[in-house]
Amino acid sequence: MNALLEVKNLNKAYENFSLKDVTFSLNQDCITGFIGTNGSGKTTTIKAILGLILKDSGKINFLEKDIDKHERKSKNKIGVVLDEGYFYDELTLKEMKNVIAPSYTEWDEQVFLKYIKRFNLNLGQKISTLSKGMRMKFAVALALSHHADLLIMDEPTSGLDPLVRSELIDILLDFMKEPGKSVFFSTHITSDLDKIADMIILIDDGQILIDEEKDALVETHALVKGDNQLINNQTEKLFLNLSQTKYGFEGITHKIDDVCRLMPGVLMERPTIEDIMLSYIGGNTYAY
C-alpha cells in the first residue's frame, strides 16, 4: 500500500503541551481515524501538517516530497475541513468561494455546484446565517471541488445532529470510490469511525499510542464482563483497564487467550473503538 502522507518525528512544544516525536503514515485508499480526547494533540498535529503552525522539528512528506519545499503543489491536492472554520462571516457563500477558488489550479466549478445542489445550499446566503451543519457542508463542498487526493478533516462531526453526521459519512464513502484517495478524520466521536475507518491512530498527551488497522485492533481486544470473585492480583494484570461495582466487573483486554484460560465463565463482547481508546488513556475505576 502506497503512503500518501508521511509524518516523521514531528515535535512542537508549547508551555503546557507538546507533540513528542509524532510519527505515522496515511495510505492511499484508506480512511484513517485520528482519535484522542480534547487536548490530546489532534488539532496541533493537523495544523503542523498544513503549515498553519511552525513545527519545532520533524519531516512531513506528501507524495514522497517534502511538503514544506513543495507547499503550493501539495496543498493543491489536499482538501481541508476544520472544526473552527476559516470563513469571513460577512461574505456570502459565493463571495467566499470566489476568495478560495483561485488558490487551486484544478478548481472545478461544476463539481462545486454539484455539491451546493446536493447540500441544498444557497450561494447568496451570508456565512453568518449558516448553522453549524450548513457551514460544515459548505466546507466539504470547497474541499472536494479541486480534485484533492487527501481530505483532512478536524472534528467535522462535532456538534452535528445524527442526520447531518450520516450525510457526511455518505459523502466520504463516495469520495473514497475513486482510486488513490485518502481521508484523515480527526474526532473524539469514535462511533463514526466504527462504521467507516480502515486505520486507527490514537494520540494522547502528544504521543502516538496506537497505529493499526481498525479490524485487527478490534479483533485483538475484548470487552470482558464477569463476577468480582474472578478478579485477583494475577487476573487484574490481564486488563488494560478495569471497572468494578458491587454487581461485577468489566474491562478491556488484549490478552484474550489468558482471560479464557484463567477466568472461565466470563462474558466477552466485541469492543467499540471508544472502549479501546479509553482503556489506553484511562485508569481503573471502583464504585461499591
TrEMBL record:
Keywords annotated in UniProt: ATP-binding, Nucleotide-binding, Transport
Pfam families, sorted: ABC_tran (PF00005)
Single GO molecular function: ATP hydrolysis activity
Occurrences of domain ABC transporter (ranges): 5-230
InterPro entries: AAA+_ATPase (IPR003593), ABC_transporter-like_ATP-bd (IPR003439), ABC_transporter-like_CS (IPR017871), ABC_Transporter_VariousFunc (IPR051782), P-loop_NTPase (IPR027417)
Gene3D superfamilies: P-loop containing nucleotide triphosphate hydrolases
PROSITE patterns, per database record: ABC_TRANSPORTER_1, ABC_TRANSPORTER_2
The protein's name in its UniProt record: ABC transporter ATP-binding protein
